[in-house]
Write a structure and sequence with these properties.
By secondary structure, the protein is of the alpha/beta class. It has one domain. It is built from seven helices and six strands. The protein has a six-stranded mixed sheet with strand order 5-4-1-2-3-6. Strand 4, helix 5 and strand 5 form a beta-alpha-beta unit.
Length: about 240
């Protein structure tokens, strides 16, 4: 059994891609991964208790917001991100990268719904190859989105996904489960992964010092955030 935690980085005026980043971990490795990120929480916050004041949010670390706002040592903040990248680079942490180019959508198409559909497809393909079952766990934004995604997954199990050559989802069990990100270290890892997917695409080729510092970390030999499954849609 594998658990798949996912989060999003939304598109905006300055960046047209909507991203979902997901991490997939087998049940036998969950405790080890959780211990590693909890140890980092103790190092950074002095506590691993799950609460908003001990939450890792990539945008807040990089942008010095909320409980990182009074830290002026950028190397220290980048070091926190690097340590999270190292956890994400573990061989037992599998990554799924979904990117939707909103500029190429037409009509009423929703990037959130399309990205979730592709996440289900890619997760199902990965699980089937591993002869495993899996469950999706997401960051709760609001009950409306939670209900919509849960209904969509149920429909995909019965009728298959919506596009041509749609896939019947057979290896994802139960519904989509949602919780607050500050209550899950795994969702915090997914947050960092979704953020870095957008950061790389948005800032590639940038000469800005802060951007180059993060790209330099990603180029280190010990960092490998290559996804096990990937989807970019529509293709230009």
């Amino acid at each position: 059994m594998k658990l798949i935690f996912f989060d999003e980085s939304k598109n905006g005026p300055e960046h047209s891609h909507y991203h979902i980043g997901a991490i997939c971990i087998d049940e036998e490795n969950l405790q080890s991964v959780e211990q590693e990120i909890s140890n980092l929480a103790i190092e950074v916050f002095g506590s691993s208790v799950l609460q908003k004041s001990t939450e890792f949010h990539a945008s807040e670390i990089y942008g010095r917001k909320n409980h990182f706002r009074n830290i002026t040592d950028f190397d220290y903040l980048n070091g926190i991100l690097e340590k999270i990248f190292i956890i994400l680079s573990r061989k037992d942490v599998f990554l799924i990268d979904i990117q939707i180019n909103t500029q190429l959508l037409y009509g009423p198409q929703s990037p959130e719904d399309i990205a979730f559909m592709f996440l289900c497809e890619r997760a199902n393909t990965f699980l089937r190859a591993k002869n495993s079952l899996g469950m999706l766990i997401g960051d709760r934004e609001n009950n409306k989105v939670s209900t919509r995604f849960s209904t969509s997954l149920s429909e995909y199990k019965v009728d298959g996904t919506e596009f041509a050559y749609g896939t019947k989802i057979t290896n994802l069990v139960d519904s989509v489960h949602f919780t607050e990100s500050h209550l899950s270290r795994f969702l915090q890892l997914a947050d960092v992964y979704a953020w870095i997917l957008q950061f790389q695409l948005k800032n590639r080729g940038s000469e800005q010092k802060g951007h180059k510092a993060i790209i330099s970390i990603l180029n280190k030999e010990k960092i490998d955030l290559g996804p096990s499954k990937y989807k970019e849609w529509p293709k230009q």
